[in-house]
Amino acid sequence: MSVNEIINMGFSLHKEGNLEDAENKYNEALKLDGGNAEVYNLMGVLKLQQEDVPAAIEWIEKAIAINPNPYFYETLFQAYIRGDFYNKIIEREDEVLKRFPENFSLLFNVALAFKNLNRNREAIKFYEKALKINPGSYSAWFNLAHLYSVEGEAKNALSAMKICSKIKPHDEDTEYFLGLALMRVKDYDKGLKYFEKRLCRETAIALQNKTYPNKASRERLWKRGENIKDKTLLVYYEAGFGDVIMYSRYLPLAAEKCKKLLFMPQKPLAPLYKDNPLGIDEVIDRFIPESNMEFDVHTPLLSLPYILGLKGDKVFAYSEGYIRPNKKMAEEYHEKFFNNDKIKVGIKWQGNTYYDKDRVIPTEAFFPLIEVDNTQYYSFQTFEGSEEVTKLTSRYNVIDIGKDLIDFQQTAAALSNLDIVICNDTSLAHLAGAMGIPCWVILPYEVNWRWHDELPKCVWYDSMRLFRQKAPGDWSGVFEEILSEMR
Predict the structure, then answer these.
(1) 379 — phi, psi (to 5°)?
(2) Per-residue pLDDT, 353
(3) C-alpha distances in Å from residue 78, one per residue of 15, 61, 110, 277
(4) Where are the domains of the chain?
(5) Which of 5, 245, 252, 267 is most buried, by CB atoms within 10 Å?
């Protein structure tokens, strides 16, 4: 039997998923022809299927040593990606540029490697090279749009997302990210329409429909331009606490459009909105059976600016002071914790890490700030991340307010006694901004769309100032800037 016949038998077994017998045939072929690069590559593919990445790399590298075929490089790069060996791809950057300058797949994978190592500028360069070869690649344009956005090139990001929408017209995910790109450049007139494709909207609607199947149907969603002057409107939460606080600025505008407004926030927010009506007739803070629940139309909260048809700067309505603390509770907190003549600073370093871990600040980064004279620091960290507070309290006179905070009514009351809040991008920042309390928000390098690119200014809250990392993961640089301002 010839070598080719043995290889073909092995390949047939391989395609059938009989990996053990295929491997035996490949080894048999190599005993007869030890320089067959194709067999080495096939062994590498087989080892990848067996989840043995190191062995796969070893076999494919042998194939390339015999024959530097672009297909073998593509297989090798897939093995590197499977093993998170992105540096290995970058080590072969010069080889790719020299041998295969017109190979889209290899250029794309080099770009992907740089992207995963947060070497964004180099990733952008390779995506742009790849797109000159294949300008119709959705993945390349999408990744490029993301990188442009991270690097503060909002207009370039928008242009790239527009190309994505042409390649995949009417694709919901594409339209959603196009909406974010539009809103990032403050084109809310167009962006809010695409923002309606967000997943959290669908989840919120589905939840209400399950709870109130006869009343919260899609047919009874409040539609843009619909007159509901004589109807009862149910507005309910979606996304996180910070989103609800930010978007609740639109509730008074919604109240003007309907006969009666019902609002259903998350339970920890309910007491806060009972103190701050915002045109709300009833705050729903418990389960109410459908037979006792009366409303005509409904909508998730984050859809309000689109439904209301807000344009231009009207999107940023009520830029501060629309949330006020419970006066009696605020006075009680003052007497218990804040009756001193120092500069009172509230801090928080972590939000919900389920969505984003890049916003978590190491507690040690606050040490230099706490050492500034005439300051008294208060930790507002609650739940996840609160175990870190001992790093502060064991070293400094930091008062742990967070351990006693049950809901946002209490948080607002305590917050009202501060001179300034310094925190990560979290619900505490939105609450401080909504209350008009000076707040310095510390952002990661990749900035959320709502903060735009005109840092340090924040158009959503007049009392807020934004600070951003100078490089991915670099908290020391931004804290040096904050320390200078604090002093």
Answers:
(1) -85, 125
(2) 67
(3) 19, 12, 11, 56
(4) 199-316, 327-486
(5) 245
Scanning 16-137, the segments in alpha helix (DSSP H) are 19-32, 37-49, 53-66, 70-82, 86-91, 93-99, 104-116, 120-133
Q: What is the DSSP letter of 221?
A: B
Neighbours of 86 (CB within 10 A): 20
HEC readout, 154-174 = HHHHHHHHHHHHHHCCCCHHH
Handedness of CA 21, 25, 31, 33 (dihedral sign): negative
Q: How far apart are CA 176 and CA 202, in angstroms?
A: 12
The answer to whether residues 215 and 290 touch, using CB atoms and an 8 Å cutoff, is: yes
CA 35, CA 29: separation in Å to the nearest integer?
A: 10
Q: What is the pTM of this model?
A: 0.90
**Are residues 466 and 441 in contact, defined by beta-carbon separation less than 8 angstroms?**
yes
Residue that is written with structure tokens 């073909």 in the block: 8
What's the CA gap between 196 and 175, in Å, rounded?
A: 9
Cα gap 480→471, rounded to integer Å = 13
Sheet holding 464-468: strands in order across? 399-400, 375-379, 343-348, 420-424, 439-443, 464-468
Average pLDDT over residues 478-482: 93
**How far is the C-alpha of 308 from the C-alpha of 179, rounded, in Å?**
17
What pLDDT digit, counting tens, does each position of 325-381 carry? 999 999 999 999 999 999 999 999 987 766 667 788 999 999 999 999 999 999 999
pLDDT in tens, 24-83: 888 888 888 888 889 889 889 988 999 999 999 999 999 999 999 899 999 999 999 999
3-state secondary structure 347-372: EECCCCCCCCCCCCCCHHHHHHHHCC
* Long-range own/partner contacts, residues 150-159 (CB < 8 A, 24 or more apart): 150/120, 150/445, 150/446, 150/447, 151/120, 151/121, 151/124, 152/447, 152/453, 154/181, 154/184, 154/185, 154/452, 154/453, 155/185, 157/181, 157/184, 158/182, 158/184, 158/185, 158/187
Superfamily of structural domain 327-486: Glycogen Phosphorylase B; (3.40.50.2000)
